[in-house]
Design a protein that fits this description.
Length: 484
């Protein structure tokens, strides 16, 4: 069998999984269950990877601390975890030997739809509902899953949110009752999309595009091109939901879809500013206009924007995007409406932690880029004491100047990027450098007055000081709860 066809038949093949963390462990275990000979490799040490080693299938071989060339040149297939750039030298060696390289997302798709093992039936009836974008992915994906479940569909949730998709697919395969789900609802990152092959979601959404991960892509164009792969394989029977108000997303629509005579999905929009075919805001009401759905009345009101349980401008957009996708995927309007009234939001996304002496403490640790912090600051009219900083992702912090000047009472900076942020913003707000998150919270406590907001929204990755953004957010909450 030629190597380039290896992805279609996994049993008995030699597969290298590159990158062991959560996605790598999920991929390795799924491959082992499919009968592959699996070796996982990571440049990190065994001590660093112990939590993931503990959950690996006993049959998976491990080579840690380096990426030996032979694992790349002699493999029948390579599965790459999202955190591993495709630009590293060993992948060039694999390409020179025509070894297929696919993402963990592609492996999950192949396995769920029956591509990877033709002796096993598909595990999903309708297909994938996939959400990407720079900001709001996790909230939108979780809300969409909530809506689909409320609408009576059996779904699983995974991807860049919660468990790896391969881990969830592995659980389905192991289900002795033969469970087959209606939909797989997935949050998808640009990293996961870089090495897809056949991945074709039934419904997809691009929420917004702003500069992010420029340490990996070096330009917004490269980043946007990776995001655009979410609809690369979609056709006339599929749908794509886009943000009509976001200039970069609209540019993607104009250049990648509208201007070309190619197979393409049916396109719908969501908007806070204008009437669209999809879901939009008008006179404080969330309206739905999807002519292709006979059960949806034209310009039908779902509910007022004020009734949506999760607050903030960005969550209004997330709610509209999720509503459009759920309706197009077959959820009843009542299920969508009830979900908007009930869904409480996610941890680390503008999460209220505590009110102390009239000061609100908010955990927005998921605000790992400039665009996310812009959206978060727009959600507050009260004076903000902003705790920011961490590992820089080539962020353009100067884009925050106007909102920081207008709304930020004090800027408290931590981490590797602290000095860079101070240089970009230090002249528009009182700026304090802190050596730790605990010191930053204590500084904010001293400066804050009743009616103020202390907001952790870092605009940076967490890896200089914390395991991940969840670890950062939970430490913030612990520090806040211990304040006297």
């Amino acid at each position: 069998m030629p190597k380039e066809e290896a992805v279609k038949e996994i049993k008995g093949r030699n597969v290298t999984v590159v990158g062991l963390a959560r996605s790598g462990a999920g991929a390795a275990n799924l491959l082992a269950g499919l009968g592959a000979n699996v070796t996982v490799t990571d440049v990190k040490s065994e001590d660093d990877l112990r939590p993931y080693i503990s959950i690996l299938d006993p049959g998976v071989k491990r080579i840690l601390g380096s990426h030996p060339d032979r694992l790349f040149s002699s493999a029948d297939m390579i599965v790459v975890s999202p955190g591993v750039p495709l630009s590293i030298r060993p992948f060039d060696l694999a390409r020179s030997e025509s070894v297929p390289i696919i993402s963990e997302l592609e492996l999950a798709y192949q396995s769920a739809t029956g591509f990877a093992d033709h002796s096993v039936p598909a595990l999903v009836k309708e297909g994938f509902l996939a959400v990407t974008g720079t900001n709001g992915k996790s909230t939108t994906t979780a809300l969409l899953d909530f809506m689909m479940k409320k609408g009576g569909f059996d779904t699983i949730l995974g991807g860049n949110i919660g468990n790896a998709l391969t881990e969830e697919i592995d659980k389905l395969k192991a289900d002795k009752k033969g469970r087959i789900v209606d939909w797989i609802v997935a949050e998808i990152s640009s990293f996961q999309l870089e090495a897809i092959q056949d991945f074709r979601p039934k419904g997809s959404a691009i929420l917004n595009l702003s500069p992010d991960h420029l340490d990996r892509y070096h330009s917004i164009e490269g980043y946007a091109a990776a995001k655009a792969r979410i609809f690369e394989n979609q056709g006339d029977d599929d749908f794509l939901v886009l943000n009509r108000d976001d200039p970069e997303t609209l540019r993607l629509y104009e250049t990648k879809l509208k201007a070309h005579d190619m197979k393409r999905p049916r396109v719908y929009f969501f908007s806070r500013r204008q009437e669209v075919e999809g879901v939009y805001l008008r006179d404080g009401q969330i309206l739905c206009d999807i002519p292709s759905l006979p059960q949806i009345a034209r310009r039908m009101s779902l509910l007022s924007a004020e009734e949506i349980r999760i607050k903030g401008i960005h969550n209004l957009e997330n709610a509209m995007a999720a509503s459009a996708m759920a309706l197009l995927a077959g959820a009843a309007a009542d299920a969508v409406r009830d979900s908007l009234l009930q869904f409480e939001g996610l941890e680390h996304r503008l999460e209220p932690v505590r009110e102390l002496d009239g000061v609100r403490y908010i955990n927005d640790s998921k605000g790992t880029n400039v665009g996310a912090v812009l959206k978060s600051l727009e959600s507050f009219s009260s004076p903000v004491l902003l705790i920011a900083g961490g590992r820089d992702k080539a962020g353009e912090f100067a884009l925050l100047r106007d909102l920081v000047k207008e709304r930020v009472k004090a800027l408290i900076l931590i981490g590797e990027a602290g000095e860079k942020i101070k240089k970009a913003l230090g002249d528009v707000s009182r700026t304090i450098m802190a050596q730790s998150l605990k010191e930053a919270v204590e500084e904010a406590r001293q400066l804050a007055q009743s009616g103020d907001v202390v907001l952790l929204s870092p605009a940076c990755a967490s890896f200089d000081m914390f395991r991940d953004f969840e670890d950062r957010g939970r430490q913030f909450k612990k520090i806040v709860m211990e304040l006297k």
